[in-house]
Amino acid sequence: MKMMKKKYAKPLLITLICLIAIGAGYFWLSSRKEQKASASSAQVVMPVEKGSIINKASGTGNIASSVRKEIKTLDNGIVDEIFVEEGQSVQEGDKILTFQNEQAESQLESARLSLEIQENKLAELNRDLAELKVYAPAAGVVGAINTEEGEDVSGGFALTSITDKKSLEITGVFNAAQIKHIRVGNQAQIVLIDSFATIKGTVTDVGTSPVDSSDSTVGYEVTVVVPNQGGLSAGMTAQVTVTSGEGSYQAADSATLENKSPKTVSLKTGGTVQKLYVEEGDTVKKGDLLASLESQSLANDIKTQKLEIEQSRLNLQEVMETMDDMVVYAPISGVISEVDVTAGERVSENSTVAVVSDMNALELVIPVDELDINNVTLGMPATITVNSVPDTEFKAAVTEIAKEGTVENGVATFDVTLTLKNIEGLKPGMSATGEVIITQKENILTVPVEAIQQRGKEKFVLVRKEGKDEPVVVKVGLVSEEMAEITEGLKEGDQVVYTLSSADSNSRSARVMMMGPGPGGGSGGGNRTGSGRSGN
Predict the structure, then answer these.
(1) 463: domain range?
(2) Where is the stretch described as Disordered (predicted)?
(3) Are residues 262 and 156 in the same domain?
(4) pTM over 0.85
(5) Which of 11, 13, 117, 394 is packed most tightly, with the most Cβ within 10 A?
């Protein structure tokens, strides 16, 4: 019997030891799993707070001018002179460069001279037209009229004469020593020999041709006009004395008063006498109209000459347009961003020679993911940050959305143009990041997205009440990558419980720090946040 007991006791002991070892191993493994689970996740309790959620679509690109014009040639030729350089500001219409064209320059000068000649001819014809009106050259009495109305007369024809009977003339002879001091306009005293009366007169002519004097010396004639206020008549003898700035000078001999010589009225252009306004014996003043003529041939000449001028102007305009093709102008105001030619270079028609950009109109084009593009609309507000202008946020707006996307690695993006509203400190070419604000809500109840759980069609969160975690059904509004809006089911201050992995916990801590503590929350969003999603 004892032998039997010993025979079965040893295997039982071995079995028992194995069971104890297995149990210990299982306990150890279970303990390790719990430790690892505890280390890889953490339970977070967070109050429901009011804050904001902003969903954005963002992308990077380079600042560029939204108005950029290539300056092209209208003709081919050799670049003569360049008036701008890169970086130079220009105004619309400023000269950019010119081309060599000696033939066109010669044609231009010829056309200008031709027009000038034709205009001079018209001016001469218009002067002839004005001469068809005949005016009195001086005051006096009209002599015989040498024509009648309806008669054709030619240029140079003596129409009549006018005699001034309100004044007389007297001519005295002065020697060479005296004549050099006498000038037209000097005053003169006329002493009548018979009565010794003195009358004032004015020198109207100083002769330059020598005449014989009574004392056998060389003399010069001086004509003096004397107003006749009555009592004077032709034939009276008088002594002439002229007073100038250098002294008084008396003529060598006495002289005789005479009527003034009649002034002949000659026509300067020919025509048909249309009307005579005076008769022989009429007294007229200087400038009175004596007669008017008409000339059909002159009218025709003027009409033809005007057509010649118009043709010359058209010719000049045509040559100038050709010359304009030889000059390249700035199409807009801005800054020259490129100069693509050099002086002496031959270029062909429609070649780009320079580029001008409007630096007051800048834009940024960013690629937006296909998941977000339908939520982006024209006019949406945007912000732009630029690496080279730190701590500054530039306002912009969506002004253009590409209708066709670009596919890369199976993912489509669409170019969205953001036009800047303030450009101070910005230059084309700068690297920038643009963000389009797709959806934004302020002062709403928010919870972390990790707190939202779903069972069937219902969404719920765990709320800690009196130490117990109870599920509460909620309605979810706008959702970003980080935060969710609660529209029903919770109130501000409720304690929400959720589990956060250690990796998510670190990320969450960083995000919470960025959003700032306390009410007001933060904004969700990332490189591609999309518009808000809503749930029930």
Answers:
(1) 43-54+441-515
(2) 508-536
(3) yes
(4) no
(5) 394
